[in-house]
Automatic annotation (TrEMBL):
MF terms (GO), sorted A to Z: hexosyltransferase activity; UDP-glycosyltransferase activity
Lineage of source species: Bacteria, Bacillati, Actinomycetota, Actinomycetes, Actinopolysporales
Domain of life: Bacteria
Native species: Actinopolyspora biskrensis
Keyword Transferase tagged: yes
PANTHER family, alphabetized: STEROL 3-BETA-GLUCOSYLTRANSFERASE, STEROL 3-BETA-GLUCOSYLTRANSFERASE UGT80A2
Family: Belongs to the UDP-glycosyltransferase family.
Protein name as catalogued: MGT family glycosyltransferase
């Protein structure tokens, strides 16, 4: 029987992109999918076959100053997130007032979806684009443990945010207490877009959690790019879509790999202009953003911030990583990359040391054990059920709800 699913996610590439293959599979099976997210992601949502529902959410931005994620630095970001949620909830209620909705598939980091599902009284399927959390392992607890000492769960800034989010839910007739807002989100069905092998404390996760592996979907087929040369190994450099304003790092990359045997595709985002880089060598291609899956098809090494989406896409194509994490969650991904022998991690000083940077990349490229481990993970990922398993899990969940 045809169902109507409402997807809800903040408009961040690392949150929306992994869900689009699932959208495509549900649409292929004849279901209707509406997707509520920020306007930036509307073209990608439409291309996947969903009906876009633009809502006033914005792409998360890096904190000001040195980018440190202290509670004080995050306060403006949380304020903007709260305001976006406050404006989104009535928009959802208005848009779907005369619609039948069978289930909400909500990004686990987007409370608006969870609140909306409870308000409608329909099942909520949690979409988890990073490490899942349960009774034994909590991403929030790990974040607090690894973050600066003044970053504890009861910090006034964090507590105030949770209280106001709880109050906002109550205004919509949904009881989600302060402790619930500060706890690990989760539900009866959690679709996790990473392989179980990459998950911390993987053995502790029961059948409430379906590990689907990375989902690339039709986007990987639509994205097109080819290297200028096929006789040189390709290094792909990207710090993602949030923490990419690192001019000195990009200049170091140019110094490290100019006029070498490497060809380099370097994504610099929208906060650094090509003119600021100085003269760009012949073996470099520099853009604000590349079609990532298309570049990874050709890459020998990915120099990455270790965002989960980028990490999963690299492993899907069997590309070793050299990681340069910019925040705690990325530090955790870099730790898994190192522990599973999928690549190496740069120390902070190496980001601006051209000789050492080139050396670390070449070490990873030449390491046969890393190549083997990444290749084996690539094969493992191909054996996962992916979007088909995800759609099966959703349909079975609704049948038994």
């Amino acid at each position: 029987m045809r169902k109507h699913f409402v997807f809800v996610s903040m408009p961040a590439y690392g949150h929306v992109n992994p869900s689009l293959a699932l959208v495509e599979e549900l649409v292929r099976r004849g279901h209707r999918v509406s997707y509520a997210t920020g306007s930036d992601m509307v073209p990608a949502v439409r291309a996947a076959g969903a009906e876009p529902v633009p809502v006033p959410m914005e792409q998360p931005s890096a904190p000001p100053g040195d980018g440190a994620l202290t509670p004080e630095a995050m306060a403006p970001m949380m304020e903007k997130f709260l305001e976006g949620t406050r404006e989104t909830l009535p928009r959802l209620s208005e848009h779907f007032a005369d619609e039948h909705v069978d289930a909400v598939c909500a990004d686990s980091a987007t409370p608006a979806g969870r609140v909306f599902a409870k308000k409608l009284g329909v099942p909520n399927v949690a979409l988890v684009p990073t490490h899942a959390g349960n009774e034994e392992f909590s991403m929030r607890a790990e974040f607090m443990k690894r973050a600066p000492q003044d970053f504890d769960q009861n910090h006034p800034v964090l507590r105030d945010f949770a209280e106001r989010m709880s109050e906002l839910a109550a205004q919509h007739g949904v009881e989600l207490g302060v402790e619930s807002m500060m706890a690990e989100p989760g539900g009866a069905l959690n679709l996790v877009f990473i392989p179980r092998e990459f998950q911390f404390h993987a053995d502790s996760f029961d059948d409430r959690f379906a590990f689907l592996g990375p989902l690339l979907g039709g986007r990987a087929e639509r994205e097109q790019w080819k290297p200028r040369r096929t006789d040189r190994p390709l290094l792909f450099v990207s710090l993602g879509t949030i923490f990419h304003g690192h001019l000195e790092f990009y200049r170091t990359c140019i110094e490290a790999f100019a006029d070498t045997g490497w060809q380099v595709a370097m994504s610099i985002g929208d906060r650094v202009s090509p003119e600021e880089l100085g003269e760009v060598p012949e073996n470099f291609e520099v853009r604000p953003r590349f079609p990532q899956t298309a570049v990874l098809r050709h890459a020998a090494v990915f120099l990455s911030h270790a965002g989960m989406n980028s990490t999963m896409e690299a492993l899907s194509y069997g590309v070793p990583l050299v990681t340069a994490p910019r925040m705690v969650e990325q530090e955790m991904n870099a730790e898994r990359v190192r522990d599973l022998n999928f690549g190496g991690k740069l120390e902070e000083a190496e980001l601006t040391d051209s000789a050492r940077l080139r050396e670390r990349v070449e070490e990873v490229a030449a390491n046969e054990e890393i190549t083997k481990a990444v290749g084996e993970m690539c094969e493992t990922i191909r054996g996962y059920g992916g979007a088909v398993a995800g759609a099966d899990a959703i349909e079975a969940y609704l049948e038994n709800s």
